[in-house]
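=== Structural record ===
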Amino acid sequence: MPLGMSDNLFQRVVSALLLLPPVLGAIYFGGWWFAALLMLGGALMVIEWCQLTRVQAVALKAAAATVIVAGVVWLMTAPDMNIAVVLASLGGLAAFGVLLLRLNISSRPGWWFAGIAYVALPIASLWWVRGMDAMLLFWIFLVVWATDVGGYFAGKGIGGPKLAPKISPKKTWAGLIGGMVLSVAASLVLHYGFGVGHNVVAFALWSALLPIWAQIGDLLESAVKRHFGVKDSGGLIPGHGGLLDRVDGLVFVAPAVVVIMLAHARMGWAL
């Protein structure tokens, strides 16, 4: 381990270096490569969700993974897919799951349906964005990664007031601001270096706002973990915990970017 680097940070760096090439490669090549990434990642995520929310039955875990994989296959064979309808339908499924929980009906189906929507929403969004503009897909991942990295170092180095101490005691306002700053800086490099984004003002503005939404996604998953009394959603990725711990911001940011793209297109504004 390099001098001055903590065990946790060293694990995070190694994990990132191992995960980046296959993820970036799948995004670049698209098609079945990207679909395979979504299938594998989605199946692991939904199984991890079932484990986290104590939906222990093997049949329900298998059914959840099958739904996600089948959904990706459907995305590949639905060239005229209306992404707005897909997102609205999945949002309705999530609401149905939450309703079951609020009505105190057996928690297992409520968490199961909510988990399907939780995983399917970002998958459908990522697939659609890849079909529209692969570079904007790179931007989504860049914003999420920059938010995590900037938040980690600003939070560790500056500290200060807690963001949501009852939900996630380690999160600070300094970490959020650090994530926002690095997200904007990295996005501007992407804009000026690779021509991503047509309107630099809008591009920078969304790059600053999306980290806030990513942080809300992080806090939501933290609230679910706290509800079930666990520290990590799993142990798949050293230094990060489970896969859900690694992509909690992406789960929220990907659908948000779809909404932003649809809104910009409707108003005739360049993003």
